[in-house]
Amino acid sequence: MSWGSFLIIVGLCMLTILASRVIPLFVLKGRELPERAAQALGYIPPAAFAALVANDLFNLQGFSADPWHALIPCIAALPVIVVALKTKSLLWCIVVGVAVFGALLLTP
Amino acid sequence: MVFSRVSLHDLKQAFVAALPIVAGYVVLGIPCGILGVQAGMSVLQVVLMSLFFYSGAGQYLIPNLWMAGVPITSIVASVSLVNLRQILYAASMSRFSEGAGKRLSFLFAATMTDESFGINLGRFTAEGAQERWTVSRATLVNLFSLVTWILANAAGAILGSLLAVPTALASFAMTAIFICLLFMQRFTPPAIVAAVVAALGVCVCKLVGLSGPAILIGALLGIAAALIVGRKTPSPEHEGGEQ
Q1: B203·A16 Cβ contact <8 A
Q2: A38–B91 CB contact, under 8 Å
Q3: Largest CA distance in chain A
Q4: Low-confidence residues of chain B, pLDDT below 50?
Q5: What are the structural domain ranges in chain B?
Q6: What is the dihedral of CA A7, B217, B38, B36, to 10 degrees?
Q7: pTM, whole model, 2 decimals?
Q8: Using CA of residue B8, residue B13, residue B19, residue B21, what is the dihedral sign?
């Protein structure tokens, strides 16, 4: 990654996360957030993580070019979901996901 | 001075409180560093990102989107949206930091993560504790976690520059992280609506050729749909949120 791209991406992301972390602490001074705002913020994690997973698994060009290859991430996602629900451990999800995904890649 | 009078006792209390986070960040920081290098970052860039940006989900997200060829504006917008959840943590911590100095409060707020928020909230609200939890100690917990995160990322980045991980594997490791983060959520009915609509929104965006902003548009649609559903069903308590 070039330093130009790095500074723009990480610099801007740093500014937005710093604002999210610091401003409410000083502005609210112990008062509560408006209820609808707190609700909307609470919906960010399920919506954002579902969007990220869908973005990774739904590979349009892959589905038409090489359907089996494009399906591998979708198949490997299933055991990861089971592990996620059972262990809630990010590390176990990486280990199981990469192992299953790697094994499927090796199949002809 | 940022801190006023930090005793050895404070350091010890904070370190004990931070231990579970420290263990977790070693385990998560190393693969994060490896993936950053696989996405084309240098070891120095990974370290700087860990110090100044300091976000687990965000630091998995940036390499993931970068490798997928997502435009820079969409990367920044998507990462910023995911990190808006920090507003909830800062809001709920504001009542504990009222007596603390401005600089200490700033440092405390700026170094908060999902995990250190959880630990510190537990200490601040502990019933029957022998001594009060202070902003100084809470900030020390944050700093122990931050230092661990930087060191683990640096170790991962060095490791990652020595070994060649196939791009497809590295990319799926990040997908596995997002799947885990998704299924760690508390699935109230509006949260399920948020997730389903967001996922469908992403697929539709990609079908019509909007692959760059797909994540952002999908997530915003999901949040909007959840708010509409949540308005009809009375909420028993705080919805969503992590842990």
Answers
A1: no
A2: yes
A3: 61
A4: 239-243
A5: 8-184, 186-243
A6: 50
A7: 0.84
A8: negative
